Amino acid sequence: MSTEVNKSLPVALVIDDEPQIRRLLRLTLEAHGYRVFEAATGQEGLLEAAQRRPEVVLLDLGLPDLDGVEVLKRLREWSHVPVLVLSVRDREDDKIAALDAGADDYVTKPFASGELLARLRVAQRRARPGPEEAVFRSGEVEVDLARRVVLRKGREVKLTATEYALLALLVRHAGRVLTHRQLLKEVWGPNAVEHTHYLRVYVAHLREKLEADPAKPELIRTEPGVGYRLIPQE
Q1: CB 72 within 8 A of CB 102
Q2: What is the pTM of this model?
């Protein structure tokens, strides 16, 4: 029986100290067309990442030698690989720390395989930008980043400079949670990172102009206590 591995398949690296979780992830990912490599410690994970150059990394925070956030910070010194954090920690502070350190998304254990795979697909799409992505479409909304034009139902929506800057940032990271701190720093500058009321006001403005029902937003979702996520829709 042949044991040859198809080296054209995308590589996933799982960094987790629980053998049962690694086995579950291996079975799930291999069934959906990934080659999977494993690491049980942070140091081993960094070495594997450098050697394997994976297309995606699934990272636990509770590792025996290094905290997962520290692993993420070290990885981000030289790599932009999409990183999905998987952790039993569900406190807002833990999510914010991981996302601020460069995680593309955060999924709490236990997790559903379907959701995990969907989050992976979004993270990988973001890592492969193409010319066509200059135009973002989600439901009734279209954002042309090259021309700086925003349409809803085919009609142009007038945005202020700050509203557009916030929307463009969310579009460039569509599907990913952006923390309050990340958004404030990018749009308003490093001196504004504590002024979360700015975000509440401007997100409310965008929802009024872009959402079918601003009270039940489908495009710009709130991640309570963490930040916001722009939801791509068909």
Answers
A1: yes
A2: 0.67
